[in-house]
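In this supplementary section we document a worked example of the pipeline. Step one takes a protein sequence of length 270 as its only input; no multiple sequence alignment statistics are reported here. Step two produces a three-dimensional model, which step three serialises into structure tokens for compact storage. The input and output of this example are shown verbatim.
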Amino acid sequence: MAVGIFDSGLGGLTVLDAVSKRLPDLPLVYLGDNAHTPYGVRDAADITELTKAGVARLFAAGCDLVILACNTASAAALRKMQEEGMPEGKRVLGVFVPLIEALTERQWGDNSPPREVAVKHVALFATPATVSSRAFQRELAFRAVGVDVEAQACGGVVDAIEEGDMILAEALVRSHVDALKRKMPNPEAAILGCTHYPLLEEVFRDALGEGVAVYSQPNLVADSLADYLERHPDKLGQGAGTQFLTTGDPKKVAQRATMFLRRQIAFDPA
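The serialised model returned by step three reads:
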């Protein structure tokens, strides 16, 4: 058994890379739904069904714990999946939790009333589906008051990354940051609300300028997972190494993944 990591495409590899460095002995199974990427332009019902199918495949691979390393899937599908219930002994976690823990400086198990936090003006960069769901704002409101969140739907960025066109992706990021700053000229913090975006973190930082704290998910998720597994050792899988699965063309996906992670990766058909 292993811990599963699911993403709509290549973005979740940023999370897998951070988890592998933080927990080098943890067996992992990565599943990229590259045949249906990007999720960010799909409706909630479609995203939910695709996410359910991906999670079921990881459960079938022996994973007791699955991380939705996709903000769009976490925003559109996670709550519904949890409400419907999981198979006995199985658990699915999203990637919003570590972000909000970091932003509000309070643990997820802290159920005290929402309170004022240091950061008052937050820029959220995410896919159109994540932005329209307002899931980040909803979860944040449970824990903090007085935080102004300005969201920018970053259309086209995931597509460019998945196609390997980083020049276009960088141009789109700068355009989206400019659009956000027209609405919120002086954000104190910026959330990179898509696991593809850490591949362009330095572009976001440069476009945002000095003085803006940038919250990027991979290391936050890795630290949160390490803490979770320490508290729930029954979810720690047995086995060794990492397996990579894709619903797309394994050879094509492997080439892109190798380019992004700068190490050789081989994918098997899901």
